[in-house]
Amino acid sequence: MRRRDFLASLPASVLLPEALAAAGMRLGDAGPVGEAGRGGPYALVLGSVQDGGFPQAGCYTELCEHGRRLQREGRGRFVASLALVEPEAERFWLVDATPDITRQMDLIEEPAFRRRAAERRPFDGIFVTHAHIGHYTGLALLGNEGLGIRDTPVYCTAAMAGFLEANAPWSLMVRQERIRPTPLAPDTWHQVGDALQVQLLPVPHRNEFADTVALLVRGPQATLLYIPDIDGWHLWHRDVAREVEAADVALLDATFWSLDELPGRTVEEVPHPLATRTMDLLQDVADRRGARIVLTHLNNSNPAHPRRRRWRAGVSRSPGRRCA
Ligand SMILES: [Zn+2]
Ligand SMILES: [Zn+2]
Predict the structure, then answer these.
(1) How far is CA 30 from CA 26, 70, 83, 98, 133, in A?
(2) How does pLDDT run across 120-179, given as a tens digit for each residue?
(3) Under DSSP, is residue 282 helix (H, G, I), strand (E, B) or coil?
(4) Number of domains, the chain
């Protein structure tokens, strides 16, 4: 089985204008985002792990201990998130507000961002894909007890906006005019900023509180597809291979590597596509268009977490824990 040209995502930069070069980036060195984005707009990968983080609370498996080591070394992996940046216009958008938001905002090194943060309006908008803890609870750290942001649109579906307006503590943030839930119609382009357009793509997912979307981001030179959570490719009304082929970079839900992480479960019971199957499904696309498929939203049981050699080809000896 060929499995070439798939990248395990890390907190590294993906540049929209240079998406093809970005796809060739060697992941494994997290580190600072460096030269990202001189000039044109770019997307920055702020995190690539599942909602519960890496390590997860109270988890002392070998993999989670590895996650702790990375954190101590300043190379920690954070929960899946992106920043979209127009550096010249000094405009910034966040895609999903995670529990790691404090450290993730530090990855945005543009001086203008820090100046704007001091003015309590660092983001021009925050996109929220859905109401699972890894994707929106970071908003709390931007509220009263934290940064205390002002008048920041939260772009999401109508159902997600309704959820934020109706439930504390988010409803308090709305009343205080810190966040402004702003529904965007799905499946249509929305202009954000001077150079970026975004489309919300509804995807099937466990929707206990609201619904779930993926994001398609279009810059002047490249398109990025971002699907952190989906129940299964076969459940989507779109053809994932076609969508990936149409994009320049695709960051895809790879929560679980294989069924080895989920003892006693069948593939039908797994609420995410297995990374091994995703790679089989998309290998032809990767071969035709080059290495532009990045695996993200990795669970703490996922052996694709770099870096120890024995984890690369096989699976962790640790059994799977909670799923996303
Ligand atoms: Zn998630
Ligand atoms: Zn989810």
Answers:
(1) 10, 10, 16, 18, 24
(2) 999 999 999 999 999 999 999 999 999 999 999 999 999 999 999 999 999 999 999 999
(3) helix
(4) 1
* pLDDT tens digit sequence for 65-94: 999 999 999 888 999 999 999 999 999 999
How far apart (Å, rounded) are the C-alpha atoms in residues 6 and 19? Answer: 15
Let me know if residue 112 belongs to a domain. Answer: yes
Compute how many other C-beta atoms are within 10 angstroms of the C-beta atom of residue 197: 16
Look up residue 244 and give its two tokens: 């990936």
Q: Does 108 reside within a domain?
A: yes
The reported pTM is 0.87
Residue 277 domain-assigned? no
Looking at the CA of 80, name the nearest ligand. 1
Rounded Cα gap, residues 292 and 146, in angstroms: 37
Cα–Cα dist 298/272, whole Å: 11
Ligand nearest to the CA of 53: 1
Beta strands 91-95 and 125-127 are parallel
Q: How much distance in Å is there from the Cα of 119 to the middle of ligand 2?
A: 32
222 — pLDDT class (breaks 50, 70, 90): confident
What does the chain come to in residues? 324
Amino acid making up residue 37: G
- Residue 70's Cα: distance from chain center in Å? 19
CA distance 324 to 216: 22
Neighbours of ion ligand 2 (CB under 5 A): 132, 229
CATH code, domain carrying 53: 3.60.15.10
Which ligand is nearest to the Cα of residue 253, counting in written order? 1
In a domain, 156, yes or no: yes
Q: Is the peptide bond before 111 cis (omega within 30 degrees of 0)?
A: no
- Domain hosting 199: range is 9-236
Tell me phi and psi for residue 173, to 5 degrees: -65, -35
